[in-house]
Design a protein that fits this description.
CATH topology of the largest domain: Rossmann fold
Strand content: 15-25%
Strand order of the largest sheet: 7-6-5-8-9-12-11
CATH architecture of the largest domain: 3-Layer(aba) Sandwich
Number of domains: 2
Radius of gyration: 21 Å
CATH class of the largest domain: Alpha Beta
Structural class: alpha/beta
Helix content: 25-40%
């Protein structure tokens, strides 16, 4: 399939050279309120080849701010997305069994609810390796993926999933619409936060939807990020940190209307938002008003809901470093499981290195043999856990801790114990 041009403009209201302050990615207002400052950090998914271990990492400021006008939480300085989602991008969605199960349930639900069939068209934005669209295709429903990273898009194409290698926005939507690829359903799972020009993205969705089409978007809920001290979800490829309140304002500007919202347990607690064109026939469910009330009660409609987060983050850092120091003094060995991007934020903010953690095990062959950016902790295959028999295994993707503990149950045989750092240090 011929690829659409890998394009996508950066938004006008981003930080520009010579400007004294950044401007909101959503409404353009000046940003003056810091939510959290994590210092400088390398790109979270820029894993380092072993033969390049001696080269320094490129590092960038990692600071999130809150817009006082529209309440969109966002990074104040943006790394160009072409530098992040490049041909070496190493995140493959299909390596999590629980995530695949979540996607199968989603497909069953939306196929039934919206009566999708062989005459329908499903488009997924940021379709990765075909992890989701494969389940629609198995039901005989036509699919199309739009994925900017060639490395994962090619994995989808190898599965027989038609995939355009392109960033999504108005230009891509216009090209797809011109050739007849308008959608009955557009799915976007954990991609909205990855979009630097969130208005252009929403405009593209509105352009690509059929008149009674549905857009579903999932994202980690900012309310859970705050409550669970989930600061490790902050990294450069996540340009924004989303609430229903902020997302509705973005959508309304582009003629989209939210008609339903669901809470899911993925990624530490997410929202699945259902939207349509403004004049479509879908009636709003009571869940929309209920979530608005929940966010308002938590203070997300004003500055109070965002205060004090950085203090709680420092407590997580101090507790983790105290544990690692105690283990080292006691002669105990510590390994980690899951070379997840969130772990790179955690390790680099805390200053953890291979002196503290011997290695991290991961199922992804694309990561094995490489080093974590910044911390330079080596990435090995999962079998390394059984070979090394560490005293402690730090579970990096804490949102998958149940799945990982079941997978690594054998460590109990030598007295090994599991550790998680977020929302607070837990050793069991």
């Amino acid at each position: 399939m011929e690829n659409l041009e890998l394009s996508g403009r950066m938004p006008d209201p981003s930080l520009r050279p010579g400007m004294s302050e950044p401007h909101c990615l959503g409404c353009g207002a000046p940003l003056t309120r810091t939510w959290v400052d994590l210092g400088v950090s390398p790109l979270a998914n820029s894993y380092v080849a072993a033969d390049e271990a001696g080269r320094p990492d490129a590092v960038y400021p990692l600071r999130a701010m809150v817009c006082d006008r529209c309440l969109l939480v966002q990074l104040d300085q943006l790394v160009p997305r072409e530098a992040i989602f490049n041909s070496g991008y190493a995140y493959f969605s299909s390596y999590s069994d629980s995530w695949l199960a979540h996607c199968r349930r989603y497909v069953a639900d939306v196929v039934d609810r919206f009566h999708l069939g062989p005459s329908s068209q499903v488009v997924e934005i940021a379709s990765n390796d075909g992890y989701l669209l494969q389940y629609f295709a198995q039901r005989g429903i036509p699919v199309l993926g739009v994925e900017p990273s060639a490395s994962v898009a090619q994995a989808a194409q190898a599965k027989g999933i038609p995939t355009e290698i392109a960033f999504f926005g108005e230009a891509t939507a216009r090209a797809l619409s011109a050739r007849g690829d308008t959608a009955d359903l557009i799915a976007a799972k954990n991609v909205l936060a990855h979009v630097p020009d969130i208005n252009d993205f929403a405009k593209g969705v509105a352009m690509l939807l059929k008149p009674e089409g549905v857009f579903t978007v999932e994202f980690p809920h900012l309310l859970n990020t705050i409550r669970g001290v989930q600061f490790d979800t902050i990294y450069h490829e996540h340009f924004t940190y989303l609430s229903l309140l902020a997302v509705e304002r973005v959508f309304e500007r582009q003629g989209l209307r939210v008609f339903d919202v669901q809470e899911t347990q993925t990624h530490g607690g997410s929202l699945r938002v259902f939207a349509c064109l403004g004049d479509a026939a879908f009636e709003a469910t009571p869940a929309v008003a209920a979530m608005r009330r929940t966010e308002a009660a938590a203070g997300l409609g004003g500055p109070s809901g965002y205060a004090g987060f950085e203090t709680r983050i420092r407590r997580v850092r101090d507790d983790l470093l105290a544990f690692l120091d105690g283990a080292r003094r006691a002669g105990a060995s510590v390994a980690a499981y899951g070379a997840a991007a969130k772990g790179n934020t955690l390790f680099n903010y805390c200053g953890v290195t291979s002196r503290d953690i011997a290695f991290v095990a991961d199922r992804s062959a694309a990561k094995q043999g490489k080093l974590l950016p910044g911390s330079r902790i080596p990435i090995l295959a999962p079998e390394a856990i059984d070979a090394a028999r560490p005293d402690f295994v730090l579970i990096v993707p804490w949102n998958l801790s149940d799945e990982i503990e079941a997978h690594l149950a054998s460590i109990r045989a030598w007295g090994g114990r599991f550790v998680t750092a977020i929302p607070e240090l837990r050793v069991e």
